[in-house]
Amino acid sequence: MLYRGSLFSVLLSAVLSACAAVDPVHPRSDTIDRSLEEARNKSILLNIIRASHQWPLNFTAIAQVSPSMTNQTMVGLPEFLVGPNPGLSPGRDVIFGSSSLSDSLMVSSNFNVSSLNTGNFYSGLLNPVSLHDLNYFIRQNYSRELLFWLFADSVELIKGSLVIGYHYDPPRDYGCAREDPKQRCFREWAEIAVITGLTVEEKTVRAKSGDVKTAAKIYSRFCFDPVLAQGGERAMDPARLRMIKAKYVIGLKPLPRCNDPGWNPGARGEEESDTLIFHFGPYTFKILPRSTKSIYQFLGQLLRQQRDHIPPAVDAYIPRERLEEAGPPTLSTDHNNPELLTVVPEQSGVQCFVHTYFFDGDYCVPEYGAVNTKRIFSLLAELLALKTQANELAITPLVRIVP
Question: Which of 6, 297, 357, 400 has the most CB atoms in a 10 Å sphere around its CB?
Answer without folding.
Answer: 297
